[in-house]
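Record filed below.
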Amino acid sequence: MSEPITFNPIQIDVREPGEPFGRATSPFPEPHAVMTSDQVVLVRSTWPMIADRSGELSARFYDRLFAIDDSAARLFIGVDMTAQRTKLVHTLVFVVEALDDVDRLLPAIAALGKRHTHYGVADRHFDSVGNALLLAFADTLGDAFSPELREAWAAAYAFLSSVMRRALMRGDASEDGRTDKPI
């Protein structure tokens, strides 16, 4: 088994809903700033193989997550896990389709991160989720989950988790009565 990865946040700013995301002026790194174009192609080209086994992938993801992180498991008490697994797959489909469309991807992922504030998610959960995701891919794909594919998904997750972490942090600030605007 591979060593767990620490997904260090990428320093980015998350704009408020409705603020423009122009490619030329955006403060966001585009996915290719973290992922190579070859990695984007690899993620996309292997997605059909993963999608065909999405039920298995999503079940293994939550099994792995709950085994890795008991505090994450407690967040799902009383949650309809069938619906939750479906949400995970829909999110992955969206991410794969939008990896090179920053105007579409970033606002949606930032909103997802901000919503997770209300679920009790903490920054520490992002490493557990990333590792569980990579392990679920390995479980589901077996030998087809090559080191290159693992690296590509790790890069994609590092990018996405950075956006979500920043949005989660800003969501926490809003909940505490502090400003949600950048300082």
Summary: Residues 147-175 form the longest helix (29 residues). The mean pLDDT is 79.
